[in-house]
Amino acid sequence: MFELGSHLQHYAWGSATAIPEFLGREADGAPWAEAWFGAHPLAPASTPDGTGLDTVIAVDPEQMLGADVSRAFGGQLPFLLKVIAAERPLSLQVHPTREHAAESFAAESAAGIDLHSPLRSYRDANHKPEMLIALTPFTALCGFRTPRRAAVILDGLGTALTDRLHTLLVDNPTAHGMRAAFRTLVSASLRPASEAVDAVVEACRARIAAGSSPSPRIDRSVSLLAEHHPGDPGVVAALLLNPVSLQRGEAMYVPAGALHAYLHGTGLEVMATSDNVLRAGLTQKRVDADEVLQCVSVTAAPPLRVAPERQNSTSIAYYAPVDDFELAITELSDPVAASARTHPIPGSGPRIVLGLEGTATLETTTGSHALRAGQAVFVPAADGPLRARGHGSFAQASVP
């Protein structure tokens, strides 16, 4: 096993303190949004000699990944582990299926669009299902409500825009009606003016003040989004979506096609190795409404919460319905007198282990490593079973 250095992303919505504190580094006043631990070629984690993890794996994929994983995923690490710290809301976004991503990536590449160009929507040919495990209280929007429930929330706001959306959903309380309502907000030809959005925001605030809201939480979300993105139609789209609140240790799975926006909090994200993000609004980055409308699922569905399963006396696992990743949390509480006792850690194949609290000593047949909070190691498949001892907790991303 060997230590990994994270690849930091300083997006405007990030926290200035959460990730520096987690990594044990000095804050610099800039927003630290994400710390990536993985092998995505655009932002690979670094190994002790400065080489990217993607390069290390490419030298001997069977040794690093194991024959089965290497064969199944074309010699690439199939998962990416992140720490995400949202101080402000993220963009309203959706992720494509693997088939759509491969087709669109090929088309943009054939057109000669540079991988780093702001005009590019697809950074790779992979899908990007993801699972978030909250490290602090975490709020989000995810997935569409039923048309009838959304109509109830729109009813009574009394603006021209919400009346139009309400009529669409009442006249056609199906996925087709919801698609029409969402299209009304994000399509370039139908997109409402900022004044129409502002009127909806004021109506939501008035409804909260009057104590008459059928969903005070979603009205507060509309108000919050408007503070950061005034006049953006994505603010109004929140009225169509499910609000989500996660406490520490609770998890949510976001499949391809699920419209979502993270609002606030710090969490672990594990996902397929991809950076394909299609934005519908609430961002200064490129919005690609046409691609969003091609990929989005408007079928009503509650947020997909993932309950952890107990693996043994020290570890629980969060399983997502995909072949790319799973995530386990191990908590060791051995007193000093028992610090020599080691515990088996479930899992095999390539693993990235990230310290969360305290200190744990990881052991494989090839050696040991003292892992502190904020540190990460890559455990190649060839290293075999993993054991740990100490007093602390860590996360392990691996392949099912």
TrEMBL record:
SUPFAM superfamilies recorded: RmlC-like cupins
Pfam families, per the entry: PMI_typeI_cat
Binding of Zn(2+), residues: 93, 95, 130, 260
Residue stretches making up the Phosphomannose isomerase type I catalytic domain: 1-145
Catalytic activity: D-mannose 6-phosphate = D-fructose 6-phosphate
The protein's Enzyme Commission number: 5.3.1.8
Signal peptide residues on this chain, from the entry's feature table: none
Active site: 279
Cofactor(s) the protein requires to work: Zn(2+)
Keywords: Isomerase, Metal-binding, Zinc
GO CC terms of this entry: cytosol
Gene3D superfamilies per record: Jelly Rolls, Phosphomannose Isomerase, domain 2
One BP annotation, GO: carbohydrate metabolic process
Cofactor note: Binds 1 zinc ion per subunit.
Gene Ontology MF annotations: mannose-6-phosphate isomerase activity; zinc ion binding
Protein family per UniProt: Belongs to the mannose-6-phosphate isomerase type 1 family.
PANTHER family noted in UniProt: MANNOSE-6-PHOSPHATE ISOMERASE
Protein name: mannose-6-phosphate isomerase
Organism: Brachybacterium vulturis
Lineage, top ranks: Bacteria, Bacillati, Actinomycetota, Actinomycetes, Micrococcales
Gene designation per UniProt: manA
